[in-house]
Design goal:
Ubiquitin-like (UB roll); 6-stranded mixed β-sheet; 4-stranded mixed β-sheet; 26% strand; globular
């Protein structure tokens, strides 16, 4: 764990025990995402899978439609801190001007919020051209997902400070799982993995998330065409409304013995 870029050791005091000890804590650092030479966003994230995070962000913000739109995606040359990722896109900035205007953030986005810092509220809801194909999840599969995701969260077990996201098949087979201090970042990482593999949209997978299901999580799933979201936490009113309008099956409070279905 000591060489894992997602965590560092810090000295702590635990009460009521006496004396100092060491503990692993989650790393939180900024990642600047650029398209060509234009800065698009700065998101607070856990280092690791930065290319997937940037790809997922650009995809779920509607800047990229598929892998063909992406010519190159790499850390900025000479960036010693590796905290800037630059995307080279087909047609350059001009070809994606409208989507870039919607996605650009004037402020840094915190790790807790996937839509903080948007220029205006009318840019929050991304218009997606992907029609979600409804999928009826098997309850017997759903109740196995908390344990499946937990097994893929070593950084959470070490720090207690990471969210997880995964894509699984309708039969419950794991395809990809990622961790991040921001739940929206974890979702971008798994969807970015699919885009970099030239496998978007995502019409036949269940998106599993370790926290609550907020609007930004459902929005990302809708853009990618994901038909089922299974969250360990609650869903918000706006998330439920968006799921209903998009034919997404939204599951919350997922446990090994129960769950709540919102849509």
């Amino acid at each position: 764990m000591s060489d894992d870029p997602r965590m560092v050791r810090r000295r702590v005091r635990r009460w009521p025990q006496d004396g100092e000890t060491g503990d692993h804590v989650a790393v939180e650092e900024p990642l600047e995402i650029r398209v060509e030479d234009a800065p698009i966003a700065v998101t607070m994230r856990t280092p690791g899978a930065d290319r997937e995070l940037a790809a997922g962000f650009l995809y779920t913000e509607g800047i990229l439609e598929d892998a063909a739109d992406l010519i190159a995606l790499e850390h900025l040359p000479g960036d010693a801190a590796a905290n800037t990722v630059v995307a080279r896109v087909a047609g350059g900035v001009e070809a994606h001007a409208a989507a870039l205007a919607r996605a650009t953030r004037e402020l840094h986005a915190t790790s807790a919020c996937g839509i903080c810092g948007k220029v205006s509220l009318d840019r929050i809801e991304i218009l997606s051209t992907v029609a979600v194909q409804p999928l009826e999840p098997d309850p017997a599969v759903l109740i196995q997902l908390p344990a499946l995701l937990r097994a893929e969260q070593p950084a959470f077990r070490a720090t207690g400070g990471m969210h997880g996201a995964a894509l699984v098949t309708p039969a419950g087979a794991l395809e990809v799982a990622r961790e991040d201090i921001g739940r929206h970042n974890a979702v971008d990482k798994v969807l970015g993995w699919r885009l970099l593999a030239d496998q978007v949209p995502v019409p036949d997978r269940i998106l599993v998330v370790s926290g609550r299901a907020g609007f930004e999580i459902v929005q990302k799933a809708r853009v990618a065409g994901v038909p089922v979201i299974a969250a360990m936490g609650a869903a918000s009113s706006l998330a439920i409304d968006l799921a209903l309008s998009a034919n997404i099956c939204l599951i919350g409070f997922l446990r090994p013995t129960s769950f709540t279905r919102y849509s």
